[in-house]
Specification:
Blueprint (H helix, E strand, L loop, with lengths): L3 H11 L10 H22 L6 E7 L5 E3 L4 E20 L21 E11 L1 E2 L16 E5 L3 E5 L6 E9 L14 H16 L6 H19 L13
Parallel strand pairs: 5-6
Antiparallel strand pairs: 1-8, 2-7, 3-4, 3-8, 6-7
Helix pairs in contact: 1-3, 2-3, 2-4, 3-4
């Protein structure tokens, strides 16, 4: 990944401001962050798997709230299920009889046992709070809805231990000068193009030119990321 300072240097070359006369680094960084948001939104629209994060966990019986570490920009998919496909018993350390480690000062749990379970998970439908009528209902989860910025509720409330897997796109984190650009090289060119044109138009702002730049970048990213159509098999009449 390219350091942000290197991206700033390339933008200065493009706008002929290598002596830092017209813009300081903070001005350019603000435009970089604006362009980074544009590119992320385009990726999230066309092929969100590229910037997707996955979180998995288990809800105990009676629990229906999933608390997130980060604010999600977009929920791609939430799957859940309480049917156990397989269960494996594992041990975190040696048996006592074959463990020759010293006892004093040893933080290792002796002969700790845990189970690894694999659940059959199904996709849940996304809904909103006011569509949930019987909010105390219990059973197999069928849908989910958002509560606040960092919480999800699944409905109905699980009666048994239920595993879930959440696929989402986290909210953007503003880039700093000492960061690296979290984009592939191909998209770096789009960002530099956007920032150069945006800074060049800052003194004589033209909203139509701005829209044209965004449309061009969106079209180029679409050409790169747009997956081919799914194949179909057509059966004959005879």
């Amino acid at each position: 990944m390219t350091p942000i300072k290197e991206v700033v240097r390339k933008i200065r070359i493009a706008i002929h401001d290598e002596d830092c006369i017209n813009y300081d680094d903070r001005d350019i960084l603000n435009v970089i962050n604006a362009g980074y948001r544009v590119i992320r939104r385009t990726i999230a629209e066309i092929q969100p798997e590229l910037i997707m994060d996955t979180t998995a966990g288990i809800l105990q019986a009676g629990e229906d709230t999933i608390t997130l570490r980060h604010i999600p920009m977009k929920i791609i998919e939430l799957t859940a299920g309480d049917k156990i496909i397989s269960s494996t018993t594992n041990f975190a350390s040696k048996n006592i009889r074959s463990n020759f480690d010293k006892v004093f000062g040893n933080a290792t749990h002796i002969y700790s046992q845990y189970d690894t379970k694999i659940f059959d998970e199904r996709q849940l439908e996304e809904t909103t709070f006011h569509h949930i009528r019987h909010r105390t209902a219990e059973g197999k989860p069928r849908c989910f809805y958002r509560v606040g910025l960092k919480e999800l509720k699944i409905y109905p409330k699980p009666k048994k231990e239920t595993a879930y897997t959440l696929r989402m796109i986290d909210d953007i984190e503003e880039l700093k000068l000492y960061d690296s650009l979290p984009l592939m090289k191909e998209f770096e060119d789009f960002l530099i193009e956007y920032a150069s044109m945006r800074l060049a138009l800052s003194n004589e702002y033209d909203i139509q030119m701005e829209q044209q730049i965004l449309a061009n970048i969106h079209a180029q990213i679409s050409q790169i990321l747009m997956p081919p159509p799914a194949g179909t098999v057509v059966k004959g009449y005879w």
